[in-house]
Every structure is written in C-alpha cells, then in structure tokens.
Amino acid sequence: MIRIKLPTHQHPLYPSPWVSSCNACRRGGGYTKDGYRCYECRIFFHKECAESSSEIHHTFHPQHPLHLSILDNSSESERKHCTLCGETLYRMFYHCSICAFVVDTACAKNPPPDSIEYPKAHEHSLFLLKNYYHGTCDICEEIYCSRYLFKCSQCELRFHFECSKLPLEITHPCHPKHPVRFLTREEHHFSDGKCRICGKELGRRFYHCSTCRFSVDVACVRDPPPLKILFPKAHEHQLSLIPRIISFNCDACGMKGDRSPYSCQQCDFMVHQSCIDLPEIINVNRHEHRLSRRLHLSPAGIWVCGVCHQKVDWSYGAYSCSTCPNYAVHSGCAVRDDVWDKLELKGISEETQDIEPFKSIHGNFIVHFSHEEHYLSLNEGSIICSGSNMRCAACVSPIYSQAFYSCVQCNFILHETCANLPRKKRHMYHDKPLTLICDDMTRFCCWACSNYSSGFRYTIKDFDIDVKCGALSEVIFHESHRCPLYYIYGDDEKTCVGCGKRSYRTFSCDDCNFVLDFKCVVLPKTTKQWYDEHLLSLCYENHTSTGIYWCDICEQNIEKYWFYKCDSCCIAFHTKCVLGDFSLLMPGRIIRYDNLRFEVMQTSPGFLPRCYICRSRHAVPFVLKVFYPKKYIFICSSWCLFCTGHFCKDLY
Length: 652
Hints:
Elements: E1 14-21, E2 28-38, E3 43-46, H1 47-50, E4 55-58, E5 61-70, E6 92-95, E7 102-104, H2 105-109, E8 115-116, E9 126-128, E10 149-151, E11 158-160, H3 161-164, E12 169-172, E13 175-184, E14 205-209, E15 214-216, H4 218-222, E16 228-229, E17 239-241, E18 245-249, E19 256-259, E20 262-264, E21 269-271, E22 281-282, E23 291-294, E24 303-304, E25 311-312, E26 318-320, E27 328-330, H5 331-334, E28 358-360, E29 365-368, E30 376-379, E31 404-407, E32 413-415, H6 416-419, E33 424-425, E34 434-437, E35 444-445, E36 452-453, E37 457-460, E38 463-466, H7 467-470, E39 475-476, E40 485-495, E41 502-508, E42 515-516, H8 518-521, E43 526-529, E44 532-539, E45 549-550, E46 557-558, E47 563-566, E48 571-574, H9 575-579, E49 590-593, E50 596-602, E51 622-627, E52 632-635, H10 638-647
Antiparallel strand pairs: 1-2, 2-3, 4-5, 5-6, 6-7, 8-9, 9-10, 10-11, 12-13, 13-14, 14-15, 16-17, 17-20, 18-19, 20-21, 22-23, 23-26, 24-25, 26-27, 28-29, 29-30, 30-31, 31-32, 33-34, 34-37, 35-36, 37-38, 39-40, 40-41, 41-42, 43-44, 44-47, 45-46, 47-48, 49-50, 50-51, 51-52
C-alpha cells in the first residue's frame, strides 16, 4: 500500500524504511526499522506509535481503561503533563475519561522505573527525575531522544534511560573488525568530526575506533541503521549499507555524497540514505501535469531542470512529465518545500475536469461565476477609455483599448483575458493549488507585489495574490530586458533594477546582472493620471547619462530607477506619484479594513483633500474616505492607513 490514513494523524501517512525521530513519543536519534512519514507536516512516526490502539489497560491505572486522544496543535495553552514522567503531552496521549490520569505514548508502552541500580554507562546508581520537563543527557547531549531523565546523586550527571544502558565499549554492526570505545572530544582526535553513519556533527561524547578512525555518535550506537533494506520504492533489489567514507554520486538525485550510501552491487546502484523514500508520482507548482520519478531520463541528451534551470544529467534519477516530453526536474528541486505539495499520488486517480469560469449563453453573451445575476456581453471594438472611469472588476485596471465583457444591466466590466482566468491553478508562489475568488467588500494585500487590491484574487488559507501576479509564469519576457527572466527564490536578497529595493523572490536573468521584483514586473506599461492629459509611458532608460529628471508632481529628483514620462509634454513622474498606493482599489466602492469602513475616492484638480495623518495634499490618484461615527477623514497612503488606528482613537 502506497499511503494509509490512520486515526492517529490528520494527513495521509507513507511507509518509510526507518524512523530516526518519532513525533508521537518524541524519541529521537538513531534508526528504528519501519515507520511512517507525513510529507505534509514533515514528521515521522514509529510504526507502533502510528498504529496505537484506541484503548489500553495500564499497570499504573488498572481500575479504568485509557483512551487514545489526538492533541490539536492549536490548543497548546491547554496542554497537560504526563502523570508518570511529567513531560508535556505532545500530539498523542492516553487519558482516563473518569479520573484525571493521563499518560503519554512513551510511558504507555514502557513506564519508567524509579531507579536504575546497575547502569552500563556509569558506575553509580541512577534515580528518576520526576517533574523535570527539560534537560540534556550527558551521554547523547540531546533533549528529546527519550522522555525519561535519570540522575546520579554522586556525580550530578544525567542520563536518558536508553543511554544509561550503553556500555563503554561495544562491537558495532557497521564496524565488526574492532570494538569502538566511548570517548570524549578531549580524549581523542577523530577524523572529520562527523558520524560515519549519519553524517551529523559529533557531540562531546561519541564512540571511536582509533585503529580505523571510525567515529559514530551515540544515537547510531543506540539504534544502529539496518545493514540491509528491501524497499521496492527505492530499488527492486536488496540494498546494503556501506559504512565508510566514500565519494559517490547518488543514482536517485545525481548529487554527490561522501559517506555511508546504500548500494546494490548487482546493478552498480548507490543512493543517499535520505533519497531511499523519494515519492514516485507528485505534483509541483511549476507544471500543470503530474511528474513521475525516473531511474534515468530518456532519450539521452541535454535536459534542463524546470525549477532551477540548470542542466539535468540524464543518466541519474530525476522527475519527468509523460505529457510534456521535454520537461524534467532534478529530484532535489522537485521535493523542495516551496515546490512540492507534499502528496504522493501513486494509486490516486488524476482529476482532469476543470471548473470553467463562465458559461456561454448564445452569441457573445456569457454568465461569469463572479456575476451570475446578469449576462455579460463581449465588446471587441476599439473603445478607448479616458481617465480611469471604466475599470475591470478582476484586475482593477482601466479599460483602454482591450476587448472586454460588460454587464447588460449594470456597470460591471471584465477584461476578456480576466474573464477567462482559470478557477484553480498551480503557481510558483505556493506549493498547494490556488482558487480564484471575488469579494468586492474586502481589500487584501497581494503577497507577491505588496499592492492593495479589491479585485479578484487567487487564495489558499491566509495566502492571497492578485490576478496580475497570478498570471505571471515562471519564465517571463519583459520589454525592459532582451533576455528571458526566471523566477528565483533564494537565500540571498537581490536588488531590483526598477526600484532599487531588495527582495528574496525576484525575476532574474541567468546571463546578465538584471533583477526585477514583483512590484516592478506588474507596473502598467502605460497609464493615465489627471495631472497630465496625455497617456504616460513607463520609462526604463538609464537617465543618469541623459540628464536629471524631476518629478512634476512632488517636485523631487528622480533617481536612476524607472519612472513615467509624457513624451508630448517632456515631463516625468515617480511611479509612486503616478499610481499611489490605492490604484488597485475600485473607486466608489465601500470596503472594510479591520474595524474601519472606507470609500475609495478618485482625486482631481478640484478635489485634493488633506490627509488626516501626514497633513499633506499629495496629488495621488486615489484617497480613502474613512467613516467614523461623527465625522469622516481622508487617508492618502498605505502608511497613513496603517497609522490610522493609533491616531484616530479620539474619533470613536
């Protein structure tokens, strides 16, 4: 079975060949054979924890049965503590419906003894620390590898129950030639400071063979990895662990490794431990079709990753699309948190039916999902709108000369392109599919470009993007640059050439040092502002070499970044002065913001109200008229709107 649904977890669980840290009993470190993982939460469960019985009888509470409870993560403030060990209850626990007795899953399976008389790891007896919620074991130096902490009253050292059983010298299954001795960092100089098995940094205490320079951490001694694995999802033959430092290329992902791979000598196959349970069929937000994991790409040749746009070596494992013959993705790129939706799709039928945004009635008439009460008629003529009187309800941009649908009974208008926007789509901004919705009483801030908008939006939970950003693809062609621009999400901020601001998410050129942020990508190429009677054009030229421009609205210097220019009048404007902060809010509409109710109002030479917050009369195209019980005030910018709640308490 590829995936299962158990009552112990809200998401589907997938079999895993081992578990190194269980999020039910919170025992961490080492390897435990067989378990489950949840891709959605990025957590693992021991098999016995995930399959816990709904009712048990416990030796510490024989009078009543105990029932399994699943703790909601949102109720952290109401969490209780285990009656036996005192640890905070986490995810799963057992409780008595009659008494106040509660016990976590670790204590339900193996209740702690009060003392350990003859521990292997220490010469003195150890005593259980009760009601001690946090502490580090002096052996493994981990906090949550076990729920029980014992202390030596003579040496003041603390031990987990499992760690107290570890001898000072053992023969490790991954190193049978010589015994490995329990040492501290000060006692011996080891090889590279990492565990030979898992590659993690060694703690202050570890096991070491000085003859072979073999070092292994406590977790991999306490729960060693399986020497052989038969996991068909990874490979059709049995895989064997090679517990040594060895340079190799992983056949599953194509990336280099430096130690302890699993190998099939029959097929000359090597794989990272972390790549053994890669999903087989997935959806990614950069492509509309499903991707399948391949042992190698066919045909042999030049392949380019659809996420990072770097070369994919066809001879190693990768993901490819059976519908699009030239689309492939590196294995590592495909399962990135910002790319994959964390669902394994093998055995799940594919949904092929799309929800249409409108129904055609007859001729050029349609009924759109956002305006089902009236028919919309297609206008394909060369209608040119003056000013901003006619605006699309979806993108809230003026109708200039584009084809559009208009309502036969009211003033509702949609661009033809906006009317055809899909109801659901995958997008590079989010790992889950987004849904197109309309709510004309709500303003939202687009996650991508940070513009306020009252138009349609693609959304999921607390994530919203406007339709302009939703229409962008991963590769765009912008008229400001000759090369294609690729969407990049990286750890380093990049500076936008259009505005000079820095961002982690940008569109960048692979060959040139050219970067655009989302706000500049969606700037309208042409627009109108009542300050000038002509159509304004967005100017990308480097005006430092052609002279200094001054904004005709604010009378401030225009720096080296993009600006709007009127060719007829030979004057220039800052982009912010032309557009303002509320250009994507529908004029005349009453909108709510937190506890405020405001009306979007268009300014003009004869109507330029003073902002209540900054006390200025900026020539922005739109202002907000905020309603209060006894009066109304005007707000000119997003910053002033943010400050309104603090400065306007006296108005209530």
